[in-house]
């Protein structure tokens, strides 16, 4: 699927049509969809790093479920879990730095 085709796709809730795209194209399309859905207002949710942490926890749960249901093998699942844990540790570090710099508690 080309990027032009994706831009004309009606917004889908699961964004599965982005799977085959280059990661940066997929990020742009998903962001653009969010702007169309929620408007061009500035960020109104929790701090972005906190949201990223929540998404990583979701990722880990999804991978665990895929392993349990046999959708992926244990070896691949283990590697994905390790990657997710590493991402979480990185985000935790970034949140700690952000809190220290901004005096934030979120």
Determine Rg (CA atoms, Å): 17 Å
Strand content: under 5%
Helix and strand element order: HHHH
Question: Which descriptor suits the 3D outline?
Answer: flat
Mean pLDDT, to the nearest integer, reads: 86
Ranges where pLDDT stays below 50 over 5 or more residues in a row are 1-12
Number of helices: 4
* Largest sheet report: none
Descriptors for this entry?
106 residues, 2 domains, flat, disordered N terminus
Helix and strand layout, with pairings?
Layout: H1 3-7, H2 23-38, H3 48-68, H4 74-102
Helix pairs in contact: 3-4
Describe the protein:
With 106 residues, this protein is an all-alpha fold. The protein folds into 2 domains: 3-38, no CATH class; 48-102. The protein contains 4 helices and no strands. The protein has helices spanning 3-7, 23-38, 48-68, 74-102. Helix 3 (48-68) packs antiparallel against helix 4 (74-102). It is flat. The model is unreliable at 1-12 (pLDDT under 50).
Summarize the structure.
This protein is an all-alpha fold and about 110 residues long. It is built from four helices and no strands.
């Amino acid at each position: 699927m080309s990027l032009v085709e994706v831009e004309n796709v009606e917004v889908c809730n699961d964004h599965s049509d982005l799977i085959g795209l280059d990661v940066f194209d997929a990020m742009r399309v998903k962001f653009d969809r969010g702007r169309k859905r929620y408007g061009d207002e500035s960020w109104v949710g929790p701090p972005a790093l906190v949201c990223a942490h929540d998404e990583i926890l979701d990722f880990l749960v999804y991978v665990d479920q895929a392993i349990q249901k046999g959708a992926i093998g244990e070896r691949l699942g283990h590697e994905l879990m390790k990657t997710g844990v590493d991402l979480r540790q990185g985000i935790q570090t970034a949140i700690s730095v952000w809190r220290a710099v901004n005096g934030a508690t979120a």
